[in-house]
Design goal:
- The strands form 5 sheets. The chain has a 6-stranded mixed beta sheet with strand order 16-19-20-13-21-22.
- The two termini are 17 Å apart.
- Strand 14 (951-956) and strand 15 (959-960) form a beta hairpin.
- With 1147 residues, the protein is α/β, with parallel strands linked by helices.
Length: 1147
């Protein structure tokens, strides 16, 4: 494997994007008028378009500049930098303070709206009191009556408009906060140091964006709900005081007690929420790592083991989720008990203090006032819980944003150096991946590279070659020495890190690394004369290529080169004809439902969760609660008219009814919580089972971010939001029916107006729903690219920084965030459009706006649709087929037969393997060679059945492998994959993930793969840590770990897929010897580009465009004008003659 770095001052063509996507979005025709903004009619064009046809992303208007992520980021960054300068020591709550500073005016504006609404709500009982007194008068003043009606209209209009604009303004502010934090987290990811990466994995960073930042949308709303609820309660108490006087004072006692009980409750909820988020981070970190390495997991048949890891993380997470949800159930008792006790105590206070007569006006004004207290009582627990969640998210994002960054001063582009001839200079440099580690990664590095020089860095595995490049790029922390100084002149400077010794004779200077130090430096000839480490590397390479035979003459070689080129040109033409016009897309577009699915999604939620029993109990207890509430009110209305019923008896029976209803409220919440937890467990389990059973083609065509979105934000909605959406929807529906029934029993004429209002509301909702439904679905598809982009950036951030492409990636991310935000803002605007009009109809008939809530959850359960899509992935073949299991001793020989094997990756794509027929005899070493795209790796894919053959058969020891279980097959095959993969954990868990071997066996395997000496010096030995993706081990060491795994398994068939690409020639020679000794009786299949790796094989297979063109002994193929001899000749030429030209190609 070769690494390179270029430094030059010319225009970098690599900075230009390969593909430029022209985004087409519609625009709002003109600036909406004040009246249009007031009643949300500015969304009418979008609603009209959505009513006529299903909306697509291009139909959604682009954001105003004030809503764009770039503006939000600039404002946040300016305020953040200002606060950081003020608070040099204490960085706590920086995110919250910054958001408050940036969005203070917007928060005040939405606060004014909610305050006006609160005043209007509290004024309603006073109007009721005035109406009752007015109707009780014998002589009625018409002007006074008209004034009351006018006041009622003003109050209702003010309440409706202020409430709707409060929600829209608060959510719009929250969306801007979300965009600012999403972009700030992404920007921080581009600057995060290696130490910061250890504390914040890629999965955690995605979680900060997908979960924590997304919570900001609701933050301003819940903030205002929280304080306005207390204001509403206090104002309601003031109204009660104006009606009943001192009788209200005893009612303050239970109110204050309930308020004080909130403090320990909030503290307990916060602790549970924090633990839940920590557990969720751990699960997402494991899930992200597993998804990125799913091919290796499937090759090794480790699916069950890694699925258990994810499930165990979810178990911890689910335990804390249950704690949170059950605490909310207990809080229900507290909050519903408050108005019940308060009302009873106030009524007793009126009687014993004689502060007000208990007539119909007083009693029903008290009840109406207490009803205004029921809303804050209902939403206050949710508000407190939401604010606690947001506070946890603030802390998490804050800890990320203030974490360690790369030091921009580590690499200086010195203007003075432009006058000199030096391009790179390091003096006495000591560098460490972990600054807290006592041992530096690179020690005492002295390096000066002249402009235009070609410098090679070589050394054995783990010597620190790649670390030198990262030190030059500024990716490693400097512990001591002078800074690394760079300048970019017109002459190109090339630094090449390589194991390929054949290039070294053409470079100007060579650095030889050993144990993190530059042990030798000089030209090729000087180092050969000096001997020691460099001479060992060169001699090892010579040993590797001594078996190459260059017997074909130049004329003969030229002749067969010409023939082969003409054949290859023909095949190239065939390939172009095959693929031209097919338009096969490797990554599939995200699927989304279209059209009206009615109640299907809600039914899916109930059916998948198997929660019908809990749903039924919830409905029954909810009916019981409403019946008892209605009975309590009816008892007061009835009892006050019966002289025989004493006042004490009246209040006691009322208190009994109300208190009993609290039991039903508790049971209602309990059953809803149990249904929600059952749904969370069921959705996660079925989703996980489906994904782990999916074939490899699913992971090849589905971005990891798309899957992570389902298991992060979508699952979070199912965990927390949907159960309560269902509760509110069903409760509102039942309450609506009860209200209409009670009103009709008193004045049946109201049914006429109610029917009109219901029909009108249904029409408005029917006009709204097609647009809202598609907006919610499109929003589900715009979120995944944001997460996927962040995830991919995290994996390739070092490359992005090396090419100075941060700005390009940052701008692209801004576009993705804006695209996601545009669907959110129009979803909110259309929702407010609907509610405003429904409330208008409802106010005409005194019907509550709860009718709307029956239909609203259809949008909120869209995560159910998205997760369900991945619960029905067509699975790969079963792991075990009970009636077709191979013998336990199979394969005893290791003979492999391919019979007319044909394979295509998807039904609509061309064949990749085109009728391979061949036999690998038992105990032979077979090399597979061919140019890129010839089908080498695909043949191995077919052997492991990562993709099922289109036709033909593969037999191992005479047994057809296609009908047997995949686990039975893959457990009997060993593989060292192309990409050396390690997982977060320990050395032991990486060597033996299934725990099948003893420590002694592991140590023996480590000794054979040249790792024992390194690991035995570590303090924790086999328990030494392995970080995410094995980043704390070099690429060569990771490859040696993979060799150690196969040494433990001892199967009769071993596959090496480009397995020695990351190790030097000396180590390669040792490994080839180990493989020959340890697998002497096994069938060894080697896929390689480096000819020395397969030159000593018993047979060589040459593939070209999916066809086998040669299969014979290497020596025989070398004696003829074969494709293999051509490959050998090219390699020999590159080693001996054209290495200088090869090096120039890197420029």
């Amino acid at each position: 494997m070769a690494y390179q770095m270029r430094l030059h001052g010319g225009r970098n063509t690599l900075s230009e994007p390969l593909l430029v996507h022209e985004e087409k979005t519609s625009q709002l025709a003109e600036e909406p008028s004040f009246l249009s903004k007031l009643v949300f009619s500015w969304v009418n064009p979008l609603l009209a378009k959505g009513y006529k046809k299903p909306l697509v992303l291009e139909d959604i208007p682009s954001l105003e500049s004030i809503d764009q992520a770039e503006v939000a980021h600039e404002k946040f960054t300016k305020a953040w930098d200002s606060l950081r300068m003020e608070q040099t020591l204490n960085n706590a709550n920086m995110v919250l303070k910054t958001l408050a500073k940036v969005y203070f005016q917007e928060i005040v504006l939405s606060g004014v709206c909610v305050f006006l609404r609160t005043i209007a709500v509290v004024a309603s009982p006073l109007l009721l009191y005035a109406f009752v007194n007015y109707t009780n008068r014998e002589i009625k003043d018409l002007h006074q009556g008209c004034l009351l009606i006018g006041c009622l209209i003003v109050v209702k209009v003010t309440e409706s408009l202020s409430h709707r604009h409060f929600f829209f303004t608060a959510r719009r502010t929250g969306m801007r906060m979300r965009s600012a934090l999403m972009v700030k987290v992404y920007e921080k990811q581009l600057k995060l140091s290696n130490l910061g990466k250890k504390r914040h994995s890629a999965g955690e960073v995605v979680n900060y964006i997908a979960v924590d930042a997304y919570r900001m949308v609701e933050f301003p709303m819940w903030f205002h709900v929280c304080w306005s609820s207390f204001i509403q309660l206090c104002l309601a108490i003031g109204v009660l005081f104006s009606i009943v006087g001192l009788g209200v004072l005893p009612g303050l006692v239970p109110l204050i007690i309930c308020a004080l009980l909130n403090l320990p409750y909030a503290k307990a909820i916060k602790k549970c929420q924090l633990e839940f988020m920590v557990a969720q981070d751990k699960r997402l970190r494991s899930t992200s790592e597993i998804l990125n390495n799913m091919k290796v997991i499937k090759l090794q048949s480790w699916e069950e083991k890694f699925k258990q890891i994810v499930e165990s993380c979810r178990e911890v997470e689910f335990r804390w989720l249950s704690e949170v949800q059950f605490k909310k159930v207990y809080a229900t008792i507290l909050y519903w008990m408050s108005p019940t006790l308060v009302s009873s105590v106030i009524l007793f206070g009126c009687v014993f203090l004689g502060s007000a007569p208990l007539d119909s006006a007083t009693i029903f004004t008290i009840l109406a006032t207490l009803r205004t207290m029921s809303e804050p009582v209902r939403f206050l627990p949710e508000a407190i819980s939401a604010l606690i969640q947001v506070n946890v998210s603030f802390d998490r994002i804050n800890s990320f944003l203030v974490d360690d960054e790369l030091n921009d001063d580590l690499v200086k582009r010195d203007q003075e150096m432009e006058k000199s001839d030096s391009s790179i200079r390091i003096k006495d440099g000591n560098f460490a991946w972990d600054p807290e580690s006592p041992v530096a990664t690179l020690r005492d590095v002295n390096l000066e590279v002249k402009c235009g020089q070609k410098v090679a860095v070589c050394g054995s595995v783990g010597s620190g070659k790649s670390s030198v490049l990262y030190a030059i790029l500024g990716e490693i922390s400097k512990t001591s020495g002078n800074d690394c100084v760079m300048t970019c002149l017109e002459s190109k400077t090339v630094i090449l890190v390589t194991h390929q010794v054949e290039f070294l004779s053409s470079v100007d200077n060579i650095l030889v690394m050993q144990d993190g130090q530059v042990t030798q430096s000089g030209s090729y000839e000087d180092l050969l004369m000096a001997g020691t480490a460099f001479e060992q590397l060169v001699n090892a390479h010579k040993d590797a290529i001594t078996s190459l035979d260059t017997s074909p003459s130049e004329d003969k070689r030229e002749l067969h080169n010409t023939d082969n080129k003409s054949w290859l040109n023909k095949k190239n033409s065939d390939a172009k004809i095959l693929t031209k016009g097919l338009g096969v897309q490797l990554t599939e577009e995200e699927e989304k439902e279209t059209g009206n699915v009615g109640w299907k999604t809600f039914l899916d939620y109930v059916v998948i969760s198997e929660g019908l029993w809990f749903l039924s109990l919830f409905v029954i207890t909810n009916v019981g609660f409403l019946a008892l509430q209605a009975a309590a009110s009816y008892w007061l209305a009835f009892g006050i008219q019966v002289p025989e019923i004493t006042t004490v008896m009246l209040i006691c029976v009322y208190t009994l009814f109300s208190t009993t209803s609290i039991v039903f409220v508790y049971l209602r919440s309990l059953f809803a919580t149990l249904m929600g937890l059952k749904a969370s467990k069921s959705f996660f389990q079925k989703f996980t089972d489906s994904v782990f059973a999916a074939p490899m083609v699913f992971f090849d065509s589905t971005p990891v971010g798309r899957i992570l979105t389902r298991v992060s934000s979508d699952l979070s909605v199912i965990d927390f939001d949907i159960p309560f959406s269902v509760v509110f929807a069903i409760s509102a529906g039942i309450e609506l029916l009860a209200t209409i029934g009670i009103m009709a029993s008193v004045t049946w004429q109201v049914l006429i107006v109610a029917i009109f209002a219901i029909v009108a509301s249904k029409y408005v909702q029917g006009y709204y729903q097609p647009t809202a439904r598609e907006l919610m679905r499109i929003n589900g598809t715009t979120k995944a690219p944001v997460m996927n982009y962040a995830s991919e950036t995290s994996l390739g951030v070092a490359t992005i920084r090396a090419f100075k492409m941060q700005d390009r990636f940052f701008k692209e991310y801004l576009k993705l965030v804006d695209r996601d935000a545009s669907t959110s803002i129009f979803s909110n605007a259309t929702l407010e459009w609907l509610i405003l009009r429904t409330e208008a109809f409802s106010n005409l008939t005194l019907i509550t706006a709860g009718f709307l809530l029956v239909y609203t959850p259809k949008g909120s359960v869209s995560p159910v649709e998205r997760i369900k899509q991945f619960m029905h992935i067509p699975p790969e073949k079963p792991a075990i087929v009970e009636n077709n299991r191979p013998p336990s001793s199979w394969p005893s020989k290791g003979k492999i037969q391919f019979e007319d094997l044909k394979l295509r990756y998807r039904p609509n794509t061309p064949l990749v393997l085109k009728g391979i027929t061949c036999t690998f005899k038992e105990g032979t070493r077979v090399g597979i060679v061919g140019r890129t795209g010839s089908g080498k790796t695909t043949l191995i894919t077919a052997l492991f059945r990562l993709v099922e053959p289109d036709s033909g058969r593969i037999l191992i020891d005479g047994l057809n492998i296609c009908p047997i279980g995949l686990k039975d097959l893959r457990m009997k095959l060993s593989v060292i994959p192309q990409e050396p993969t390690l997982f977060r954990g320990s050395i032991r868990t990486n060597m033996d993930p299934l725990g099948l071997h003893s420590d002694d066996e592991i140590w023996k395997a480590l000794e054979k793969c040249q790792l024992k000496n390194i690991i035995s010096r570590l303090p924790n030995l086999l328990d030494s840590s392995v970080s995410d993706e094995g980043e704390n081990w070099s690429a060569g060491q990771r490859q040696l770990f993979c060799l150690g795994r196969v040494l433990l398994r001892r199967n009769k068939i071993l596959v090496l897929d480009e397995a020695t690409a990351s190790i030097d020639s000396a180590t390669d020679v040792i490994l080839q010897r180990i493989i020959r000794e340890e697998f002497s009786s096994c069938t060894v299949i080697t896929v390689a580009h480096r000819v020395p790796t397969v030159i000593d094989s018993d047979k060589v297979m040459v593939l070209s465009f999916g066809e086998m063109v040669e299969y014979d002994e290497p020596s025989k193929l070398m004696e003829t004008d074969s494709f293999f001899s051509k490959l050998v000749a090219e390699y020999w030429t590159s080693c001996r003659k054209n290495s200088g030209q090869k090096l120039d190609d890197f420029q």
